[in-house]
Amino acid sequence: MNKNSTNKQIEKIASLFDVEGSIAAIESYGSGHINDTFYLKNVDTTLPDYLLQRINHTIFKDVPALMQNVKTVTEHLREKLAKIEGSDPEKEVLTIIPLKNGQLYYQDEHGNYWRMYLFLKDTHCYDLVENEAQAYSAGQAFGKFQSLLSDLDAALLADTIPNFHNIEKRLERFQAAIDADIMDRKKEVIAEIDFLNERRGAMNAVLKLGQGGRLPLRVTHNDTKFNNVLLDKNDRVQCIIDLDTVMPGYVAYDFGDAIRTIINKAPEDEKDLEKVKLNIPFFEAYTKGYLQEAAGFLTELEIKSLMLGVLLIPYMQAVRFLTDYLEGDVYYKIGF
After folding, report:
1. CA 180 distance to own-chain centroid
2. Separation CA 69–CA 62 (nearest Å)
3. Helices H, strands E: what count in the chain?
4. What are the b/e assignments for 235-250, b being 16+ CB within 10 Å?
5. How far is the C-alpha of 50 from the C-alpha of 38, rounded, in Å?
6. pLDDT-derived band of residue 208, with 50, 70 and 90 as boundaries?
7. Is the pLDDT of residue 232 over 60?
8. What phi and psi, each to the nearest 5 degrees, are found at residue 108?
9. Rounded Cα distance, 165 and 172, in Å
10. Mean pLDDT of the chain
11. DSSP-derived 3-state class of residue 20
12. How far, in Å, CA of 241 to CA of 243, rounded?
């Protein structure tokens, strides 16, 4: 489909939503790898701009439940922020733009799901943390996010990706991939398999504490990369975005994923392993910012579990990548 045809399709879909004004321009937007996002610029500069997204329903198989999660979480955040002096919920929380009939999403004739958000003007994000101040701010942002949601019953939310951080399920699939070895690749990665298998028992700690009722199930973000923190024009934290994986979980998962992405001095796909090093000052700065916001609601054991999450999430990523390699690269995009 050429650009003109795509734009006409987007205009047609956008017209179904409860928007103000009309579209002046359409542009692809963002660096996300899951959903397709389009920026819709309004003809009238006094009216809002919008973001239209095509939701990847191959990954998110229950879009109605996903959108209900987003609605539940954003409404709760907005209510809590409205009670905090100096807060501006309209800028600090994503705003869903419903269809004209009130629905939260549109399903087109091809089975694709579409949703719309209000575009937050004069905001930006960074893919990599550049300094300790940013790391500290990121910790504050996700700590505040969890704190504001700490009184929301996690049972109200659906699992948008079931067993996403369930290490037992990940290891079961890993073992099945080893046993099947359908691509005849096992012989190439024996050392890596042995490394992961030697640590299987220790990596169950967070899940076992949760299953034993010692860690409370919370509302967690589950994708705590720095580029999911939206900053204002002065580089101050404004809004947490990408709420598709907000679902029940343990706080150690969010903390571990944030540390995994924030303290790596190199990009995730860096080929030169000599460049992959840990930035400990970023670790300390993020932790300080996070605990400043979150310590008030966390239990003592939850705080102790944070370090378990720091070890678990990189391990889980290694399990997922190696599983995919053994299965024939069916999930992750690869390059040569």
Report:
1. 31
2. 11
3. 10, 11
4. eebbbbbbbbbbbbbb
5. 8
6. very high
7. yes
8. -85, 180
9. 13
10. 93
11. coil
12. 6
3-state class of 236 per DSSP?
A: coil
Single-letter residue type at 144: K
Q: Helix axis angle, 132-148 relative to 280-294, nearest 10°?
A: 30
Which helix (H) or strand (E) segment holds residue 26: the answer is strand 23-28
* CB-CB contact of 112 with 57 (8 Å): yes
112 vs 103: CA distance, rounded Å: 15
The tokens for 110 are 């091809």
For the CA atoms of 12, 16, 19, 21, the dihedral, rounded to the nearest 10 degrees, stands at 40
Angle between helices 132-148 and 251-262 (to 10 degrees): 160
CA separation, residue 331 to residues 9, 30, 59, 277, 325 (Å): 28, 21, 10, 26, 9
Mean pLDDT of 104-132: 94
Confidence of residue 189 (pLDDT cuts 50, 70, 90): very high
How far apart, in whole angstroms, are the C-alpha atoms of residue 154 and residue 298? 15
pTM of the model: 0.91
Structure tokens at 265: 């001095």
What pLDDT does residue 330 have? Answer: 85
**Residues ≥6 apart with Cβ < 8 Å to 8:** none
- The pLDDT, as a whole number, for residue 41 is 96
Instruction: Check residue 16 and report its DSSP letter.
Output: T
pLDDT level of residue 2 (50, 70, 90 thresholds): low
pLDDT of residue 267: 76
| 90's tokens | 């309209």
> What is the separation, in whole angstroms, between the first and last Cα of the chain?
27
Rounded Cα distance between 1 and 10, Å, is: 12
Strand partners, 239: 230
Which residues on adjacent β-strands are paired with residue 37? 53
The one-character DSSP state at 284 is H
Q: In 10 A of CB 264, how many CB atoms?
A: 19
